[in-house]
TrEMBL record:
PANTHER family: PURPLE ACID PHOSPHATASE 3, TARTRATE-RESISTANT ACID PHOSPHATASE TYPE 5. Signal peptide: none annotated. It comes from the Eukaryota. This is Calcineurin-like phosphoesterase domain-containing protein. Keywords: Hydrolase, Signal.
Length: 186
């Protein structure tokens, strides 16, 4: 006969919430791309990439941030997404994107591009994690990797961006601070 106990406990997590209305001066461009999909002859990824390229070229924002589901760069279980490296990465680099934020890989990671200013930020450790599943052959630019559960926050100001990675208990694991001048170098 097996005996077991079930314990229930009340927990409360309060996260800081910062909200701002859309900036009418165009000082921030946050673009979300559906980075995967085809339906018959219709290539939704190609259309999304074309739309993103136009939006990035037209943007006068100081901070350019693109969000997608799949990683461009990752040393986690899924690794780099070849299609995004082929089709999306040249657009991100040509348009001076500051950050590409994604999930998909069940980890937390920060990778700095070795070819451009892009910071690749993965926050995919919210529901599960794959301990020890790391591609050690793909480590160029890796600043932080955590194969446990956790989350990431992003705080933006006109000249500063702060990214903080936390474990599930709220312990700070990694901090990235980015700075920009007051005036664009155009």
């Amino acid at each position: 006969m097996a005996l077991f106990s079930v314990y229930f406990m009340c927990v409360s997590a309060l996260l800081q919430r910062l909200e701002h209305p859309i900036k009418p001066d165009g000082s921030l461009s946050l673009m979300v791309i559906g980075d995967w999909g085809r339906k018959g002859a219709y290539n939704q990824s190609q259309v999304a990439t074309q739309d993103l390229e136009i939006a990035l070229k037209d943007s006068i924002a100081k901070w350019k941030i693109v969000v997608g589901h799949h990683p461009v760069r990752s040393i986690g279980h899924h690794g780099n997404t070849k299609e995004l490296n082929r089709h999306l990465l040249p657009i991100l680099e040509a348009n001076n994107v500051d950050m590409y934020i994604n999930g998909h890989d069940h980890c937390l990671e920060h990778i700095s591009s070795t070819r451009s200013q892009i910071q690749y930020l993965t926050s995919g450790g919210g529901s599960k994690a794959w301990k020890g599943d790391i591609d050690d052959n793909n480590t160029d630019g890796v600043k932080f990797y955590y194969d446990g559960q956790g989350f990431m926050t992003l705080e933006l100001e006109q000249t500063n961006a702060k990214v903080v990675y936390y474990d599930v208990f709220g312990k700070v694991l990694h901090v990235l601070n980015l700075f920009k001048g007051l005036h664009s170098p155009i």
